[in-house]
Design brief:
The structure is a homodimer.
Chain A: E1 2-4, H1 7-19, E2 24-29, H2 35-47, E3 50-55, H3 75-85, E4 89-91, H4 95-99, E5 105-109, H5 117-120, H6 124-139, E6 143-147, H7 151-163, E7 169-173, H8 193-214, H9 220-231, E8 237-246, E9 260-268, E10 271-279
Parallel strand pairs in A: 1-4, 2-3, 2-6, 3-4, 6-7
Antiparallel strand pairs in A: 8-9, 9-10
Helix pairs in contact in A: 6-7, 8-9
Chain lengths: 284, 284
């Protein structure tokens, strides 16, 4: 496994792989790798010949007051994980390397970035799409892998790739969960044991949405009310949003009459946690 | 020479060229090809093995009320020119083909797009950078060619390519001029013979700027006043701007103490004409 800190060396190594006719994968991460990332990497190793993992805590996707400084950066452990999974190249650029040209250029996706986390984290998705556009240009992967856990992000990235005709495929992998349903996240590290127990209610509320739809209840107001009810069982949970949206346009809908994204964001103690599921009215 | 209307067929043809280890050039145009474009294409033919010319009147770079509808589209003559110059592939997409996915994604370059044409044509550069990002992703050229005539555009595109780490080089070719100095432009077609004569004052004013700097006059206010004086010799000329800016940051400066962009935009009759020159204080 190679570790590259510079854009130039990544380009060189990937070019060599391509000249060997290898299929290139990119798994963009902010490090603090967990079993969710491992699932993405394993999928990449299965699909492709040359797997690149980027580890970069991207400052432009953090809003003022967020956890940029304290975001975990266990680089040695991350590299160990990459090695074990069979990754070929880890790209660990500095902020200087990524934004050294006094960046003035932004990639933005309209509309899809307005609801949910877009409303609560202004500028967040602009940072995500811009850094992904940069990583895609640096690595030029055939396939890039993202997790369904960041559901809105996956939808936004897919739209960017389609709209800008970027020459790659985006694969979105299922959310990996703890046995109690809690979606695996680097930010779970901020939780105490009790908070972790409370956080299991997030997935419970999402499952409840699915069950209500399966029972023929389609009125989103009623479903959301019951989801909030479940979350309120833990007073430590502060709800940021509970939403049911058209899974393609991310627009609010009154009735679950198509594929929808049920999405929850909460704060528990130091952590901001998000989760979502796709619910299809026809999947019973 | 091949002519392709679809993104898929362009990708296929370019892929074949790349598999032959050919160096790929892209000359993005809006058609109505003239000797300025021919100079770009000839340079591309000289530098590269496989030259792609795109002909697409990009609606997103026109502002409301501009000449989108009447912009000349002499496709047969354009193809004839491409053939004669030795172009390998002409890409002539429809608007549907380029923006068929209900585009929500934009590439924007801040600051550099604020002065000059950016101020007078809101949204123009966002349309230019977005369509160029798309064309770069579709063709994946090694080198893309632009004219110095659209000086701000060249600076903005270069910044976008640098900031987003796009894997290509941008080559900016000198402005091609009529014998009287008028910069060649597709929009010169809108001019009567008298208006063409008046339009020669644009280059005369730019040359005057250069001469004043060579004579040791560096105060931009004095230089701009004299440039305006020259332009006012033709009452048909309506000045949009006469500016002297830092050639890298495009910020206004009081004194010509570095490489500057002297830029003029005017309206004459039906036409909006722009021109510029780079002036270096040390080039005497």
């Amino acid at each position: 496994m190679e570790v590259a800190k510079t854009i130039a060396s990544v380009r060189e190594l990937v070019k060599a792989a391509r000249s060997r006719d290898q299929k290139i994968a990119l798994v963009p991460t902010m490090g603090a790798l967990h079993i969710g990332h491992i699932a993405l990497m394993e999928r990449a190793v299965k699909d492709c010949d040359y797997v690149v993992v980027s580890i970069f805590v991207n400052p432009t996707q953090f809003c003022p007051g967020e956890d940029l400084e304290k975001y975990p950066r266990p680089l040695d452990a991350d590299l160990e994980i990459c090695e074990q999974v069979g990754v070929d190249l880890v790209f660990t650029p500095t902020t200087e390397q990524m934004y050294g040209t006094a960046n003035l250029t932004w990639v933005t996706v309209e509309k899809l970035t307005e609801p949910l986390c877009g409303r609560l984290r202004p500028g967040h998705f602009r940072g995500v799409t811009t850094v992904c556009a940069k990583l895609f240009s640096i690595v030029q992967p055939d396939i890039a892998y993202f997790g369904q856990k960041d559901g809105q992000q996956a939808i936004v990235i897919k739209k960017m790739v389609a709209d800008l005709n970027m020459p790659l495929h985006v694969v979105v992998c299922p959310t990996v969960r703890e046995p109690d349903g809690l979606a695996v996240s680097s930010r779970n590290q901020y939780l105490t044991e009790q908070q972790k127990k409370d956080a299991a209610l997030i997935y419970k509320s999402l499952q409840n949405c699915k069950e209500m739809v399966e029972d023929g209840i389609t009125d989103t107001k009623s479903i959301i009310a019951q989801m909030r009810e479940i979350l309120s069982q833990a007073p430590a949970i502060k709800i940021e949003y509970v939403s049911i949206l058209d899974a393609e346009t991310l627009q609010e809908i009154g009735s679950v009459d198509r594929l929808v994204l049920a999405a929850v964001a909460v704060r528990i103690g130091q952590a901001r946690l998000i989760d979502n599921i796709l619910v299809d009215v026809g999947e019973q």
